[in-house]
## 1
Amino acid sequence: MKKSILLILLLALSFTVSATETKLMVRAKAKDAKFIGSSIGGAYVIVRNTVNNQILAEGITTGSTGNTDLIMKTPIDRNTQLTDDKTAGFLAVVDIDEPTFVRVEVISPYNKKNAQVRASTELWLIPGKDILGDGVVVEIPGFVIDILTPNTHQYISKQSIGEGLDIRANMVMMCGCPIEKGGIWDSTPMEVVAILKKDGTTVATIPMDNPSRNIFEGRMQVTENGYYEVTVYAYDSKTGNTGVDKVNYVVTD
């Protein structure tokens, strides 16, 4: 009889503490731009229990960058939802049996290591109380810059340079959204500059122009052999967004 009562109590206890599936939508949004999704490789999301650092869920945001008119052109009132079922996000599904304080970590853009930002926030999850819709939105500041020419560790003959060595870089918002003169993401107020170093010493600073969408160009004079480094940086004083890329190359006879 006692064994039967004990068994019943154990069964009741097991039902009482059983975990409950709880859903949390996580989205990464580029500062002054749109959501980070499939077109740029997504953002990597990790949801951790803050007490023991246990990973409760992890994955990549997938989907579109969202509705441009709504996100960038429409005044947003309180409780306006910026996303729909096609907008990039990661749906974390966790099993918890009590209110749990979690840390949401976002690594983004996941496939662009030179521009990658790690951002996080924390919140309580309550068993069975889903957080959906826009969900938790983590802001990712910056620009993605890729220097196209010169190439990394390229050996360039001084004779081939002639009137100057071209610098070309591709730059987009952190969501991959395009940058161009007069566009939604207008390059006109942005400062994009190439810094040229020879053997570790700065020898020139070259402002770069934006002749076509996402492409920035400049030209530097190179008259001596040596080891060179080019740093391209971007700065938007209105938003505080910044970005940097570097390459090294060698000039020979």
## 2
Amino acid sequence: MFYKINTAVIFFILLSTSSMAAMTISGTRVIFPGDEKEVTVRTTNKGDTPALVQVWVDDGNANADVNSMKVPYMVTPPVYRVEPGKGQSLRLIYNNMVLPKDRESISWLNMLEIPPAYKGPAKDRLELAFRTRIKIFYRPKALDKSSSASQTEDLKWAVDNGSKKVKVTNPTPYYFSFDSMTIYSGSKSVNIDADMVAPFSTSEFDFEKNAPAIGNVTGAEFKLLNDYGAIIVGKLKASGNGLTLENYK
């Protein structure tokens, strides 16, 4: 019997065994070129027991009923078994759903690792199913195939000490995914809870919890993830009234 894929992650721990996810996905994101009909994603069982796996795509709502949402891909096989040390390739197939041609679109690939049946005493069991979820970026063929990491100079930055927020405006057709962000005021620094900025939009990111307001902003540093999941580091300097940050040239 399989778990419903719209269910939140299910926890189990076998008290006599340490619990770790065995199944992995190659890469931390999938780039789907607009001139392709399908792409291949590799999954691998790095554990020492067989793994039963269920995969699906969601539209950004991680806990919604996937059977009722509209997504631009189907993934096959949807359920499969992988022997220890072996792998399974997934086919991510574009279903011709209409997507914007002037910007990237995002979906999420989910992989649920269903643990083997436990045959010991029921009182010794608290079961856990491991779920992995990564981003799928659909990149229309009208766009340059280079990633957003090459477009960082187009971003616009502002810091609001009063509300303890950093505002990032993205005028490009690419998504920007941040690994981290830090702003500086002289020798002081504050970490920012940065995430992602969608194409042609603005996102506001909060100062880390309990962070104090700081004085005049003197600079900033950010780390972005490129198409391969590698970190790209960028540095910024203050200009004007200290609230606008511009890329170093």
## 3
Amino acid sequence: MALTVCVLLLASCNKSGDEQATDAEAAKEEPTLEPLTSENAVEVLTAYGKEHPDSIAVISTRHGDIKVRLYKDTPLHRANFVRLAKAGFYDQGEFYRVVKGFAIQGGDSDNRTMKQGGYKIPQEFNPKHYHKRGALAMARYGDERNPEKESSSHNFYIVQGEVISPEELKAYEAQNKMKYTPEQIKTYTTVGGEPSLDQQYTVFGEVIEGMDVVNKIAEEPVDAAQNWPKNIVQHKIKITNQ
């Protein structure tokens, strides 16, 4: 099953003049984020990553907190995640796609007012980083529009996954043209994950605390057509390094 960048469509509502004025005042106080483009994203993120070596983030939801460690050998993805989180961009997001036994996907919301720009992140595939249970990775558009498998600017997902049989894992090795290490084989066949996504999407971190929260989100009732949670699961992301 492939993860794609999808948009959650929410019904809009009409507001009174007083409410619109209040919104305008609030917008002036919101933190700002300089939008990036495909032309300057790598340069900006490279420089930002050197100035901000942070590698721990806490994703807070109504179900509890998920603490993740960001990999330093995926520097562009780490810098991008830290940059958006520190700017408050992810505080306007939610887990908008939930597939039990597969993954929960977040980072987007139709209610967001902050803009990040229309850019993609070059893939940073690393055979050391695979889609084990708890892996943090970036979503992307499909192969036809994105042959280089560049990542979305902001949509991320956390793998829930299931235990994989040795026979299934061998099939995925052939499919993805890769060879799993004994440790990776043990993890997939005893803990679980989603090997179908390996070398297709960039894994740039992992859950170190709060996998129970991921499981709770995965249990949310969803719309059968789009896998959208019927009850919004908002998230806020704080860079903590603790």
## 4
Amino acid sequence: MKTRRGFLKQLSIGTLGMGMLPTLAWTNTNEQQFGVQLYSFRKAMAKDPLMTLQQIAAIGIKEIESARSKKGLYYGLSPEEMKTACVDLGMTLKSGHVALDDNFQDTMEQAVASGQEYVICSSMPSRGQTVDNYKKVAEAFNKAGEACKKVGLKFGYHNHEYEFESENGQVLYDVLMDNTDPDLVHMELDLGWVIVGGKDPLDYFKKYPGRFPLWHLKDMNMKKRESTEFGKGGLDIKTLMRHQEASGVKHIFIEQEEYASTPIESMKHNMAYLRNL
């Protein structure tokens, strides 16, 4: 494990080598801050989390959402180490993808130690595609939200495409929305998976205004049903960005799981795309 002093020394040297300051020259406090879901860099984070965070910071990312891996919630770093690394690089660890399972108490304790605000259940804890199951899950989410609120955290849920399937004319995601307490369950809407599921995010902004404090901004190749660089897929990013207020979004995390070349080059493209909107 690298020491913090060693990491800072490495950062100082690496900054000069990467030309970090010119890269960051365009950012300022008046611009919208964008985050990234670290699953986008999953292989690099597993190999060298500190150096990967440095590279992420160098392209202007300001907020981080972690994702659990085989090495734990923070890719082998302790919660405190993850928090410190982000702060040293001018970023904020804002959220984390977790599982709602028997280890959830430990998950909450680690999240508190890391200083993050949100813990987001990354997928359905049970995959029964029925209204009854989604009502049961909604009840479990409300209880998890209560537990998180007691320790100063906010609980949420991240969708995929399957939640937009229907049973007896009822869209299952809508069942989840209608049976969760907005004060306890904070939805992270993955915009890419919404359109793959055959729905329009704008319709959800209208039906459930203010219910989506977090976004996953993810363009999608609709033929392959996989993520792609911004502007290359079926997501109308420009229109969605004009409807942030209706959705209630506070934090926008870019996520990309497949790449034209490398994750860092794709993320540079995505950031440049957002700058030019």
